[in-house]
Hints:
Two copies of one chain form a homodimer.
Chain A: E1 6-7, H1 8-12, E2 22-27, E3 30-40, E4 51-57, E5 60-64, E6 68-71, E7 75-79, E8 85-100, E9 118-119
Parallel strand pairs in A: 2-9
Antiparallel strand pairs in A: 2-3, 3-8, 4-7, 4-8, 5-6, 5-8
Amino acid sequence: MTEDAVDVNAKFDLFAEHWSPKLVARLNDYEVKLVRIKGDFVWHTHEETDELFLVLDGLLTIQLRDRDVVLGPGQLFVVPRGVEHCPRADEEVRALLLEPAGVVNTGDAGGDLTAVVEQI
Amino acid sequence: MTEDAVDVNAKFDLFAEHWSPKLVARLNDYEVKLVRIKGDFVWHTHEETDELFLVLDGLLTIQLRDRDVVLGPGQLFVVPRGVEHCPRADEEVRALLLEPAGVVNTGDAGGDLTAVVEQI
């Protein structure tokens, strides 16, 4: 690997906390973030944007109001804008997120799990 | 996995050709594509957009005019807009691409390797 390439596994070694996405790359006005997920998040909606989850490790359930979307390693799902969702994982999941810059992780819900995104 | 989730490996089983990105998901006005890479591409530039390569399998060299960026599995690189580049792989690489809808794979270069993007 060479300068300014991003090694995803090496980036995951830099943090341990759950539900706190870390910025690792920018693409125009979009951001690539890595996140560790464990337990239940909060139900929330992003009214202004779709949100992509790509699972790298573990089993992630994205609860929607009408069904659950279950993702394993190498599986991805785009939550459409305006669709209420709540991620959940019994065991730790490592996932890559993609969304426009400035999207707040808790969307319209706010609360204690709202994270300030740090670049690593 | 559940309906409308995307299994990356299963999608790769649907095509074999090189240098022909396949659309597997949309995120707002961006597209997630999968591509098999082998051999040398053409030098080209995307004047209007950055372009993200995430290598899933194999070893990809993204030649830039001033250096090579070498990516293995789980490594990503964003080619900045306006930067001339030429991907190359001695053995087959499987990669995920992310860029705005409508980006032409050969950028300003055109030619025989220009692909029409099919959704799979």
